[in-house]
Amino acid sequence: MTTKPITRFVARSFFLTLALCTFAAPARSNLTDPREAVAIHGPLDVQSQAYVQLANNKPMLEALWNKPPDKYEYGDRFTITLTAKRKCFAYLFYITENDESLALFPSRNQENNAMNADSHLSIETVSQNTMQVDTTHGRLILLSVADGRESQAVRKKLLRHSDWQTTRTPADHCLALSGKQLVKKLEALKKAHPNVVSFSVEDAPRAKSKPKPLQFGKPSKFELTYLH
Length: 228
Known about the structure:
Blueprint: E1 3-5, E2 28-32, E3 36-37, H1 44-48, E4 51-52, E5 59-65, E6 80-84, E7 88-96, E8 100-105, E9 114-115, E10 120-123, E11 125-126, E12 129-131, E13 138-146, H2 151-158, E14 174-178, H3 179-192, E15 197-203
Antiparallel strand pairs: 1-12, 2-5, 3-4, 5-6, 6-10, 7-8, 7-9, 7-13, 8-14, 11-12, 13-15
């Protein structure tokens, strides 16, 4: 995926890649709330702490793309809208085909990624550049940290100061972790905090083909891009 400046005064250029999901539309991702109360017999203090993990039950965070996965074409704008089903902290990561990782949301300079129940958040830019689909393979990671007593400790472990990469562009989004290292770290956090951390990894949208170069004559489609 390429990124284009929103205004003509932004002189930035960097490339991301987004890959086509293998599942059918709608383009929706669910992060389930792993805590589901159950009725049990016993002391009240035991009952109040009783939870069971149920897959695909009460999604904590949902992600909806602006198009079905198989409808994206080369150069299409990519937007992802997050919906919180309960109060949580939302994260969106991207892994390139070269196993590089980026934090699409929040960036290094964004401190507030809390979402209240039934709130929505649209992500369509990276460092003031729009996200566009190309033909390269990549993966998206949608992660949620449930609000509660453990959330602050989990968030401190999740993205440390040393996890950010400042020598690549965009510096406020690039991570020093490889894609494999990032996934391994998230798996460890999930194992240590099963009632707090939920995440999913899936292929991102990907264009099936790149438009052919324009030939002499009357082209059917043609576009000019100005970067200032």
